Sequence to fold (154 residues):
Amino acid sequence: MTEAGAVNEPDANMSASRRLYEEVFGKGNLDAADEIMAAHAVSHGPGSPPMTGTDQIKQQALRLRGSIPDLAVTLNDQFASGDRVCNRWTGSGTFSVEMPMPSGVVAATGKAISFDEIRIDRYAGGKIVESWFIPDRMTLFTAMGMVMAQRASS
Fold:
């Protein structure tokens, strides 16, 4: 369902969502977040209250790019319906610089790391106004050494 007055431009919206991954996360172009997202955009993530604005996504990109300087971004799947764009992307690289986390600093492992995220963006006026994202934190935290991988017993 779309809001009254919303223009549905699935191709343009998919292109903008692609830029979010390729430019903001892939290249570290934080200014692109302000071009792609509305200043009042609301982001919904698991285990945290909704966040308003573009600062949250910029901080996430800085944290990942700072700790994984060779971060490569791959947009695996993308489709649009109405005012929504659904994306599944993968970030990968080498965890070579410590990462500040709310619980403290995580020491770099120097190991290859890979993680996935599924994100749904809602557009109005040509910009993302609301997003829902589900990052695969378990895979990320295990690769960072924050969570011990459990082996299946035989």
Observations:
- Residues 4 and 132 are 21 Å apart (CA to CA).
